[in-house]
Design a protein that fits this description.
This protein has about 180 residues and is of the alpha+beta class. The protein is built from five helices and seven strands. A five-stranded mixed sheet has the order 3-2-1-4-7, with helices on one face. The chain has a two-stranded antiparallel ribbon with strand order 5-6. A hairpin with a 4-residue loop joins strand 2 and strand 3. Helix 1 runs antiparallel to helix 2. It is elongated and about 80 Å long.
């Protein structure tokens, strides 16, 4: 079955509709111009005529120009296609599948905006949080079942020693409490 807009008569109907919308736009704008509305005194009628003229001219010129080509499929660039969000657990699975070592250290600290973050030792941001407790809980959940992964904290305020963050290991507390 041929779709109606793919046929020659469908194309002509779309273009005729576009021409009639352009004519409607002309009538609306001509009526608006003949009203001689002073600035700052425009009423509802003026705004409706202006909107009708704009929408009719836009849609009319589109239909008149494209006709049946309006419904052609367009290939979307890879940049604008929908991407599947990757969860942290699937990222860890991919790392283990590619024989890449998992992070040996998760760093809980603050960024320049004041948000609490969790980063791996290589510097990749794993999460951004509103509170330090939420960031620590996330880091502990990411470390679950992996005792070789340590969790460090920058202790809230970013203390710097020779241009580097001073980190304190919070593993000792967790190990002594267990």
């Amino acid at each position: 079955m041929v779709q109606w807009h793919r046929s020659r008569s469908g194309d002509l109907a779309l273009r005729a509709g576009g021409l009639s919308l352009c004519a409607l736009s002309y009538v609306a704008v001509a009526r608006l111009a003949s009203m001689h509305v002073p600035p700052m005194k425009a009423g509802l009628t003026s705004f409706v005529l202006a909107a009708l003229g704009f929408v009719a001219a836009s849609a009319g010129s589109l239909l008149l120009t494209l006709g049946r080509r309006l419904f052609d499929e367009v290939e979307v660039s890879a940049r604008w296609r929908h991407r599947v969000r990757v969860s942290i657990s699937s990222l860890m699975e991919q790392l283990s599948m590619n024989n890449i070592k998992e992070p040996a250290l998760l760093v809980v600290g603050r960024d320049a905006d004041g948000s609490w973050t969790v980063r791996e030792s290589a510097g990749m941001l794993l999460g951004r949080f509103a509170s330090a407790e939420a960031a620590r809980r996330f880091a502990q959940a990411e470390r679950a079942g992996q005792p070789q992964v340590a969790i460090a904290s920058s202790a809230g305020a970013v203390a710097r020693i020779d241009g580097r963050l001073s980190l304190r290991i919070v593993e000792a507390k967790a190990a002594s409490g267990a």
